[in-house]
Amino acid sequence: MTIRSYVELMKLRIGLMVALMAVMGYVAVADRIDPLRLAILSFAMLLGSASSSVFNHFYDRDIDRLMSRTCRRPLASNQLDRPQQVLWLAGFLLAAGCGLALVFFNAVVALHLFLGSFFYAIVYTVWLKRRTWLNIVIGGAAGSFAVLAGGAAVDPGRWLLPFLLSITLFLWTPSHFWSLAILLKDDYAKAKVPMLPVVHGDKATAEAILVNSILLVVSSLLPVAFGRLGWVYGAGAAGFGGWFLWNNWRLLREPNRLWARKNFLGSMIYLVGLFAAVLIDVNIG
Is the pLDDT of residue 81 over 90? Predict the structure, then answer.
């Protein structure tokens, strides 16, 4: 395998999103931002995410071969004679990430990093993905641990705001991923992966997305209700939330690939918007 293949195994785009969520948790509670510590935190979270992604490639290589989107992945396309070798890489990445968290921060950060990797690799990939359409609902907790890790990197005792933000991220994941699942429904059906659109259809999935997104937007306002963030964040969360719900409503009215794609991209814009609102609010305050 080439270096590029190993990089592909680590799914760095997902890792960057995980690191961004840790940064959100950090800046939400930090009185002063230390760029070096923030960089170390981001790198540690990236390593943890990469570890679970490598394992995901290994465990799912059989069904990856059945889907057009994933059939060219390194292990699915048999680029390695002994695919079990990548488990050493996964273990090293996880140990390195947890080690950095423990040395530069504290055991709570290391625990959250470990739990995020465990939820994605074991709870989602091994236990749930092939068994139930609730896979991404429960497995989505993996990303929430990144926000908690970011807050704990500042002070484990200041847990309330990171916890509230982690609830929002937990509810964001189904709306984001179910939109993608509509786009990839045929692939998942071929691989017999029971994603919600495969099991219950696009219309029911659009309904579930809208209900989940209502809960998501409500949860995003909890930091204001608890007095942990101010009106700037509240206005941003409400504005981006209203726009995202409108996208969800359009998907419900027209449950097709066009609006599923717009909703999928819109979910990422919404999340970045929330991050920006947190950043602006804590700096103004």
Answer: no
